[in-house]
């Protein structure tokens, strides 16, 4: 129970469904002020109190479990290491993968519980052979299946998402109000919970370093300087501080971050278009496809709020390889690509390499 409206209603619905429910809030930091407060994040002392009030109204036991050390190692330190390597990680996806449906689920099973229920908007469907599948939520606008794409078949077997079939978030808020929950109108959390003031660049500079380096064009010509390559992501336009325009007068975007040489490569928007993405770190959300010897038609989603695009999926040389029908834009190594068959999440991989739709020559 994060202290928000979704997990409160999910817990109440689990009780209504006849389950024996215990509310658990995750303490992810031992230092007050290192996680967001109010509506800007989750898992703070304020949120813990909100969760306890909801648990009291529902009439279920409530506990706070300290996962701060594991959260630091598996989410925060991973976030820092990925940026230091020039990649762009998704900390919410890592939290689901390594904390909520790994550390939390492991402890729950050890204590004799059957499953972990959360307020995520997603559905679990059982096929004719008894295999559990992860599917999009009924409300696509609130669908969170992307950040759950890391779940395995074993984890899906012990997961419940009571809100998955709800037509809209407005209905959840109305239900919360009817149940008397004080969080009924609490704003949704957003941004990265472990960066207190939302200044990701400044936060990274303190931990990765902010040594001045060069901003180069694709031919290797120096255009300017930056105060730390780790602060930049592929596709970024703002904050380049290049003192003169491109020859064609069009804006330039970050095409590549090179942490070893502390260089940032920039170029035109069309240079961001990719014809292929691939990764060797992948997992299947339930039963894997029977045969990937030939390309499989699918949909691929590269961000939590991006639209899925038609593509083909292949398995080559220990990698999952996706070729979109139309070029993908602004994709960075470190992002997660989630594969869909209709509404079903087939699996996901961390993007290790990309292939440009048009050759890019760097001097």
UniProtKB/TrEMBL annotation:
Its EC number is 2.8.1.13. Residues 142-144 are annotated as: Interaction with tRNA. It holds the Pfam family tRNA_Me_trans. Residues 276-347 form the tRNA-specific 2-thiouridylase MnmA-like C-terminal domain. SUPFAM superfamilies: Adenine nucleotide alpha hydrolases-like (SSF52402). Residues 203-267 form the tRNA-specific 2-thiouridylase MnmA-like central domain. GO terms for biological process: tRNA wobble position uridine thiolation. ATP binds at residues 26, 119. It comes from the Bacteria. Catalyzes the 2-thiolation of uridine at the wobble position (U34) of tRNA, leading to the formation of s(2)U34. This is tRNA-specific 2-thiouridylase MnmA.
């Amino acid at each position: 129970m994060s202290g928000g409206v979704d997990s409160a209603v999910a817990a109440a619905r689990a009780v209504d469904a006849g389950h024996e429910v215990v509310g658990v809030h995750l303490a992810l930091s031992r230092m007050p002020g290192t996680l967001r407060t109010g509506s800007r994040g989750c898992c703070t002392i304020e949120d813990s109190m909100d969760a306890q009030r909801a648990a009291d109204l529902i009439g279920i036991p409530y506990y706070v479990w300290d996962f701060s050390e594991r959260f630091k190692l598996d989410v925060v330190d991973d976030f820092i290491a990925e940026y230091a390597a020039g990649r762009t990680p998704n900390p919410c996806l890592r939290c689901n993968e390594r904390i909520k449906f790994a550390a939390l689920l492991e402890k729950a099973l050890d204590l004799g519980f059957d499953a972990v229920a959360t307020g995520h908007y997603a559905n679990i469907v059982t096929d004719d052979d008894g295999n559990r599948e992860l599917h999009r939520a009924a409300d696509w606008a609130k669908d969170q299946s992307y950040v759950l794409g890391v779940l395995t078949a074993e984890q899906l077997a012990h997961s419940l998402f009571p809100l998955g079939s709800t037509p809209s978030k407005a209905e959840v808020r109305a239900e919360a109000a009817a149940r008397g929950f004080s969080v009924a109108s609490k704003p949704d959390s957003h941004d990265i919970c472990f960066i207190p003031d939302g200044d990701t660049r400044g936060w990274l500079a303190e931990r990765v370093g902010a040594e001045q380096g060069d901003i180069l064009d694709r031919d290797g010509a120096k255009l300017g300087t930056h105060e730390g390559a780790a602060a930049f992501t592929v596709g970024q336009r703002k904050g380049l501080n290049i003192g003169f325009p491109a020859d064609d007068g069009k804006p330039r975007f970050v095409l590549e971050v090179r942490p070893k040489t502390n260089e940032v490569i920039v170029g035109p928007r069309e240079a961001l278009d990719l014809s292929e993405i691939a990764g060797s770190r992948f997992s299947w959300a339930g039963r894997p496809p029977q045969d990937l010897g030939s390309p499989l038609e699918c949909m691929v989603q590269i961000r939590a709020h991006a639209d899925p695009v038609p593509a083909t999926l292949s398995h080559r040389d220990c990698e999952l390889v996706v070729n979109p029908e139309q070029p993908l834009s602004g994709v960075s190594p470190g992002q997660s690509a989630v594969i869909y068959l209709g509404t079903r999440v087939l699996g996901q991989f961390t993007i290790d390499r990309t292939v440009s739709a048009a050759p890019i020559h760097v001097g």
